[in-house]
Write a structure and sequence with these properties.
The protein is mainly α. 64% of the residues lie in helices and 0% in strands. It contains four helices and no strands. The longest helix has 16 residues.
């Protein structure tokens, strides 16, 4: 992972090893645009990542269904 990707995905660092390969690919793809985001957009993305990481697997499944 590049330093930019590590910075973009920092909120997920403690959960990274528990994510499936598909989830890791999704987050890596999302991190590709991180450097072009404004600081406010970066903060919003990090906040949402932190919220997502705090959910239980059951809550994540429910969130996916609701989306």
């Amino acid at each position: 992972m590049s330093p930019t990707q590590k910075q973009a995905l920092k909120p997920l660092a403690s959960h990274w090893d528990r994510l499936s390969e598909a989830q890791q690919r999704k987050w890596l793809a999302l991190s590709a645009n991180f450097a072009t985001m404004t600081p406010a957009e970066q903060a919003t993305l990090h906040s949402r990542m932190s919220q997502w990481a705090a959910l239980s697997p059951q809550q994540r499944s429910q969130a996916r269904l609701n989306f």
